[in-house]
Amino acid sequence: MNLRKLFGIKPKEKKPYEFADVLHMWEDDHLMIEFLPKDNLDFIKKESKRINEFGEEHFDGYGFTDITVIEEVPVKTIDKGLDFNSVAKIFENNGMERITEVVYQNVGHLTREKVPFGFGSNKFAVLLDGENGKLKYIWTTGRIENEELEQKFRSGLSEFAKTYDFLAIDWYKSESFDLQTENGMNEFIKNSC
Fold it and tell me: Which pLDDT does position 7 carry in this prediction?
C-alpha cells in the first residue's frame, strides 16, 4: 500500500545540484596523474614496480590491507627552474581556457583567486602550481569530455613536453608515457585523461 498516495502526500521536489557543471576536485587526486622531468624515468620505473609489488602483497581479494606513499622524485619540477608564466602561456596559446571555479572536496565551491591555477573545462583540467615564479608541479584531474578540448590539450601538452623534456606518469596505474611520441601521447590521453 502506498501511504503517500493514500494520504495525498506529494514527495519533495528534488532540486538540481547547484554545482553540477563545475569542475570537482578531490584532495586524493593531487599529483596522481602528473608530468615530471624525463630525468626521473629510472626512478619512475623502480617506484612503479615497488608500488605494484606492495599492492599485490597487500590485496586480500576485496581491497587493500595497507597503503604506501609514493617516494620523492630525485629531480623535482621546481629544480628545472621553469618560468611559471611561460608554461601557462603554452596552454593558453593552444586555446585552453582558464578554469574559473571548482568544487573542492571538504572545502566547497571556490571562485576568483581561490581557484587553483589551471586550464580546461568543467570536467577536466591541467593544473599548474608555482613557487616564486617557477613551476613547482603540473598535473591533471578529471576526464576530457570532447574532441575540441582533447585537441587543445594535446597540442599544449605536446609543446610543453617537447620544450621542457617531460613525461607523464599515472600513479593510479603505475604507468609512464613518453609524450614526445605519437603512441605515448595517444595512450596517455586514452587511458588517463
Answer: 64
pLDDT digits (tens, 9 = 90+) for 33-42: 999 999 999 9
Q: Extract the C-alpha cell encoding 133.
A: 615564479
Residue 123's nearest CA partner among 91, 90, 99 is 99
- Sheet containing 118-120: order of strands: 118-120, 124-131, 134-142, 33-37, 166-170, 175-177
pTM equals: 0.88
Q: Phi and psi (nearest 5°) for 92?
A: -65, -45
Task: Tell me which range, 19-33, 56-70, 126-140, is most confidently predicted by mean pLDDT.
Answer: 126-140
Of 172, 34, 155, the residue nearest 91 (C-alpha): 155
Sign of CA dihedral 91, 48, 78, 104: positive
Other beta carbons less than 10 A from residue 162's beta carbon: 11
C-beta neighbour count of 158 within 10 angstroms: 16
Task: Please state the domain extents for the chain.
Answer: 20-60+68-192
